[in-house]
C-alpha cells in the first residue's frame, strides 16, 4: 500500500467526491478528495479515523444512512464486486463556526473494491454524487405521508429507501431493512406471485399489479411494482381484513350450497367444519350436538388436517370445565395461546397434544338452551379477530339449521319408509289372511264331507254292524283332523300373547322322538316315505313340556312328509352340541330357496303355494314350531342347499342339569282307566247336539245323566237330580255357566259338587275366571272324552 501522505497529495487534485477506506471493522478513512472534504464540511483531520465516527447519523432522524452504507461496504468485502446504492439520506454536520447543526443531504453512492494479488479487498473506493436536495426532500415528504407502504429495490434486490408506513405494515424497526436482500429477509416469497411479478417488472420494465397471500405472515397484500432507474419501486397495502371478508362471504355462500346438498345430519355437520377448517387454515374443526340427558357432546365426524388424528366421538360436557357455564350463557371462548391463558395453562400440554395451541368454541343456543358447540383448533398461537369470530358464529348457525333440517328430513323419510313397509306388510297380511281363510274353509270342509256321508250311510245301514263300525272309524279320523287344525290355531294365538301354559319337566328326547314318529306315521306311510331314526347311545334330557316337544317334532315330520314327493327319505337325528341337544329333521323333498329360509316360520307362510294346495295345510305348523321352541328357551332354524335339494330343520334345546335321583319322564306313560263307580252327571249346553252326544258317551260309560239347555234350567234340575258332577258350558243364554256355577256352589251340598267348565276359549284369563266362579276344572272344546272320564273318576266325591 503506498504512503498515505503521498496518496492524499494525489487524491487532493483528483476531481469528484470520493474517499478511500480500509476494509477493517471501522472502515478507517485512508484518503479523501478535495471535493469530498468540501461537500462534507470536513478536512484532512478525518484521515486515519473510523468513517462512522467522523460522519455520525443525525440523532433527530432514523439512522438509515449509516446502516445502509455499512451494509453496502460489507457486501463489497464479501463479494469483491462494486455495489451501487440507491439514493439515500445521510445528513452532514455543519462546521462549528456555522453552529454545528446537521444539514439534510441526499447521496447516490458507489462502492468499488481495489483487489490485492490474492483476490482480497485491499481498499474500498467510496464515490458519491450528491442528489438534488429539493427534489428528494419533496419526494421523501410525499412518500412518508402516503398511507401505502413503499420501498425501492436495486438490481441486486437490496432494499434502498423504505418509508415509515412500510416499516409499520411489515412490523420491523425503522431502517432495519436498508441494504438487505429482499429474498433473504423474506425467503417465503420465492415461488409466489411476489417473486414472479417482481422479476417480471425488473426484467421487462413494465408495471405489474397483483394481490397475493404471504403464508409466512398469514397476510394478503395488494401490490403495485414500478420500474425504476436502478431497479424497482414497490407500493403495497395489507388487505388481509378485506380479503378475509371476501373469502368468508364466498365460503358462506359455498357452505350454504354444500349444506343444501348434505344427505344427512352427519354430513351437514362435517361440511360446516370442512369449510371453516379450509378457510381458517385450522388443524381440527368439529360440530357437536349436546345431549343434556347423558351430559355429553356428540361429534359424528370432525374435519382434520392431513397430519392430525380424528377425535370424533363422545365428549363429556364436564371435560369443558368452567367453560361449559360460559357456553350455556351463549358466550364465545376464544383462546389465543393455551399456555398463557390462566384458564388453560394447567391443561396446555393435553390441549396441544390435541393440536389446540389456540382454539375457539362457539355455542349454539335455541330458546336459551345450549344445543350445539362448534369448535376450531389451531396448533399455532393465534389472535382470533372479530371478523373470524363472526364468521365462525355464522357458519355454526347455518350448520345447525342444516343439521336440524337433515334430521327432520331423515325422520320424515324413516316415517315414510315405515308407512310404506307397513302398507306392504298390511297388504301382504291381508292377502295372506284371505288365502288363509280360503285354505281354512277348504281344510274344514274336507273332514266335514266324509262325516256327512258317514252319517247318511249309518242311517241306511240298518243293523249292518260292520258298516257302522267302518263309518264310525272314518268319522273319528276326520274329527281328529279337525281338532288338530283348531288346536294349532288356538296354540298359535296363545303363544302370540304369551298365554300358553307350559308344564316343564325333565324329558327324555329319545322317547319324544319315538312318540312323534308314531304320531306322524299315517302321513309318512300315506306317501310311502322311509323314516330313519338316528338316536345316540346316551339319553339326552331336557327341561321342557313333553306334550309340546312331541308336538314340535310331529309338526316337523308332517311338514317333511308333506313337502317331499312320494317314496322320499325322512330322518330324525338326536345329537349333543355342547350344553345343548340338537334335533335334526331332514328330508330329500322340494327344498327351499335361500331367500325363503328366514321367512319359512312366518305366520300363514306357504313357501310353495301350488304344492301346498295339493298337499293341504294351513301354513301355521312351522310358526307353531318356532314359537313353542322359543317359549321353552330353544331355537330353531332351517337349512337347504336350494330347490330340489331337500331341507333340514334343526331344533336346539338346552340340556337339563344332571340330577342323580331324578329320572326323565317319557311322554305317553299315562294310561287312562275307566271308572267303575257310576256318577250322577248334570250337563248344561245350549248346543243340544253337543250336550246330547256327551250325555250318550257318559251313559255308555255307566253314568246317569241329565241335560239342560241353559244355566237356569241346570239349577232347577240339580235341585231334584242331586248330581255328583256338573259339566257347564260357559256361554249359555238366560244364565251363563259362570253364574250357574256360583249358584250351584251356594246350594246345599254345593261345596262337595265337582263342577267342570266347558268353553271354546282356553286362555289363562278364561281359566282364571272359571276358578273364581267356583269351577274345579276348565276344559277346552272339543273335550277329550277319555280325559273327561278320568277327571270324573278321580275327583268326584259322592255322598
TrEMBL record:
Residues 135-180 form the PAS domain. It is a multi-pass membrane protein. The keyword Nucleotidyltransferase does not apply. It is an enzyme of class 2 (transferase). The modification 4-aspartylphosphate is found at residue 729. The keyword Coiled coil applies. Residues 680-796 form the Response regulatory domain. PROSITE patterns: HIS_KIN, PAS, RESPONSE_REGULATORY. Keywords: Coiled coil, Kinase, Phosphoprotein, Transferase. Residues 439-657 form the Histidine kinase domain. GO terms for cellular component: plasma membrane. Residues 405-432 form a coiled coil. This is histidine kinase. It comes from Scleromatobacter humisilvae. The lineage of its organism: Bacteria, Pseudomonadati, Pseudomonadota, Betaproteobacteria, Burkholderiales.
Amino acid at each position: 500500500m503506498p504512503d498515505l501522505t503521498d496518496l492524499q497529495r494525489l487524491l487532493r487534485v483528483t476531481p469528484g467526491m470520493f474517499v478511500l477506506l480500509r476494509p477493517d471493522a471501522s472502515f478507517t478513512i485512508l484518503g479523501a478528495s478535495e471535493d469530498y472534504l468540501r461537500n462534507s464540511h470536513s478536512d484532512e483531520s478525518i484521515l486515519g479515523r473510523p468513517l462512522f465516527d467522523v460522519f455520525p447519523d443525525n440523532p433527530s432522524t432514523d439512522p438509515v444512512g449509516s446502516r445502509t452504507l455499512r451494509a453496502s461496504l460489507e457486501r463489497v468485502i464479501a463479494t469483491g464486486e462494486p455495489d451501487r446504492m440507491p439514493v439515500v439520506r445521510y445528513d452532514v454536520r455543519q462546521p462549528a463556526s456555522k453552529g454545528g447543526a446537521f444539514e439534510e443531504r441526499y447521496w447516490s453512492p458507489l462502492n468499488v473494491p481495489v483487489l490485492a494479488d490474492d483476490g482480497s479487498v485491499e481498499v474500498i473506493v467510496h464515490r458519491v454524487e450528491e442528489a438534488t436536495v429539493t427534489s428528494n426532500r419533496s419526494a421523501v415528504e410525499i412518500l412518508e405521508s402516503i398511507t401505502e407502504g413503499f420501498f425501492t429495490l436495486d438490481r441486486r434486490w437490496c432494499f434502498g429507501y423504505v418509508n415509515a408506513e412500510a416499516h409499520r405494515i411489515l412490523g420491523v424497526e425503522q431502517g432495519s431493512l436498508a441494504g438487505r436482500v429482499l429474498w433473504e429477509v423474506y425467503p417465503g416469497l420465492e415461488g409466489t406471485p411476489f417473486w414472479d411479478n417482481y422479476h417480471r417488472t425488473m426484467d421487462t420494465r413494465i408495471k405489474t399489479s397483483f394481490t397475493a397471500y404471504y403464508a409466512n405472515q398469514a397476510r394478503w397484500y395488494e401490490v403495485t411494482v414500478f420500474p425504476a432507474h436502478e431497479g424497482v419501486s414497490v407500493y403495497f397495502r395489507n388487505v388481509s381484513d378485506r380479503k378475509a371478508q371476501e373469502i368468508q362471504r364466498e365460503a358462506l355462500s359455498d357452505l350454504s350450497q354444500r349444506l343444501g346438498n348434505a344427505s344427512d345430519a352427519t354430513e351437514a355437520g362435517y361440511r360446516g367444519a370442512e369449510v371453516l377448517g379450509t378457510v381458517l387454515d385450522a388443524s381440527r374443526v368439529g360440530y357437536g350436538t349436546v345431549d343434556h340427558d347423558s351430559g355429553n357432546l356428540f361429534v359424528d365426524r370432525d374435519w382434520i388436517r392431513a397430519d392430525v388424528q380424528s377425535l370424533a366421538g363422545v365428549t363429556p360436557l364436564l371435560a369443558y370445565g368452567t367453560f361449559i357455564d360460559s357456553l350455556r350463557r351463549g358466550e364465545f371462548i376464544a383462546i389465543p395461546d393455551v399456555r398463557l391463558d390462566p384458564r388453560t395453562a394447567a391443561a396446555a400440554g393435553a390441549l396441544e397434544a390435541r393440536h389446540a395451541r389456540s382454539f375457539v368454541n362457539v355455542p349454539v343456543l335455541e330458546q336459551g338452551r345450549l344445543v350445539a358447540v362448534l369448535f376450531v383448533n389451531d396448533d399455532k398461537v393465534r389472535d382470533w379477530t372479530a371478523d373470524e369470530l363472526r364468521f365462525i358464529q355464522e357458519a355454526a348457525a347455518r350448520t345447525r339449521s342444516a343439521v336440524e333440517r337433515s334430521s327432520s328430513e331423515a325422520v320424515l323419510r324413516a316415517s315414510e319408509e315405515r308407512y310404506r313397509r307397513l302398507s306392504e306388510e298390511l297388504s301382504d297380511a291381508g292377502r295372506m289372511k284371505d288365502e288363509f281363510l280360503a285354505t281354512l274353509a277348504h281344510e274344514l270342509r274336507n273332514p266335514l264331507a266324509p262325516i256327512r256321508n258317514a252319517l247318511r250311510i249309518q242311517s241306511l245301514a240298518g243293523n249292518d254292524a260292520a258298516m257302522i263300525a267302518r263309518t264310525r272309524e272314518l268319522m273319528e279320523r276326520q274329527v281328529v283332523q279337525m281338532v288338530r287344525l283348531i288346536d294349532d290355531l288356538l296354540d298359535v294365538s296363545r303363544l302370540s300373547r304369551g298365554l300358553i301354559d307350559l308344564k316343564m319337566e325333565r324329558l327324555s328326547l329319545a322317547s319324544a322322538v319315538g312318540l312323534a314318529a308314531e304320531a306322524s306315521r299315517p302321513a309318512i306311510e300315506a306317501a310311502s316315505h322311509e323314516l330313519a331314526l338316528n338316536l345316540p347311545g346316551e339319553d339326552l334330557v331336557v327341561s321342557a313340556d313333553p306334550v309340546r316337544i312331541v308336538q314340535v317334532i310331529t309338526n316337523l315330520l308332517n311338514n317333511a312328509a308333506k313337502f317331499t314327493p312320494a317314496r322320499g327319505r325322512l330322518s330324525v337325528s338326536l345329537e349333543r352340541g355342547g350344553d345343548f341337544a340338537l334335533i335334526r329333521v331332514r328330508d330329500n323333498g322340494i327344498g327351499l330357496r335361500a331367500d325363503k329360509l328366514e321367512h319359512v316360520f312366518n305366520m300363514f307362510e306357504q313357501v310353495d303355494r301350488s304344492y301346498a294346495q295339493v298337499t293341504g295345510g294351513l301354513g301355521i305348523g312351522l310358526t307353531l314350531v318356532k314359537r313353542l321352541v322359543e317359549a321353552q328357551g330353544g331355537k330353531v332354524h332351517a337349512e337347504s342347499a336350494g330347490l330340489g335339494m331337500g331341507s333340514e330343520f334343526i331344533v336346539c334345546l338346552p340340556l337339563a342339569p344332571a340330577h342323580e335321583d331324578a329320572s326323565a319322564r317319557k311322554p305317553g306313560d299315562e294310561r287312562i282307566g275307566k271308572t267303575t263307580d257310576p256318577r250322577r252327571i248334570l250337563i248344561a249346553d245350549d248346543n243340544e247336539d253337543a250336550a246330547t252326544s256327551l250325555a250318550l258317551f257318559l251313559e255308555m260309560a255307566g253314568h246317569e245323566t241329565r241335560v239342560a239347555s241353559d244355566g237356569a234350567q241346570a239349577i232347577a234340575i240339580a235341585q231334584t237330580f242331586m248330581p255328583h258332577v256338573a259339566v257347564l258350558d260357559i256361554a249359555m243364554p238366560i244364565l251363563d255357566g259362570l253364574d250357574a256355577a256360583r249358584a250351584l256352589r251356594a246350594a246345599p251340598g254345593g261345596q262337595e259338587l265337582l263342577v267342570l267348565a266347558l268353553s271354546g276359549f282356553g286362555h289363562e284369563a278364561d281359566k282364571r275366571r272359571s276358578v273364581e266362579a267356583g269351577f274345579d276344572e276348565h276344559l277346552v272344546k272339543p273335550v277329550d272324552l277319555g280325559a273327561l272320564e278320568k277327571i270324573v273318576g278321580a275327583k268326584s266325591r259322592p255322598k
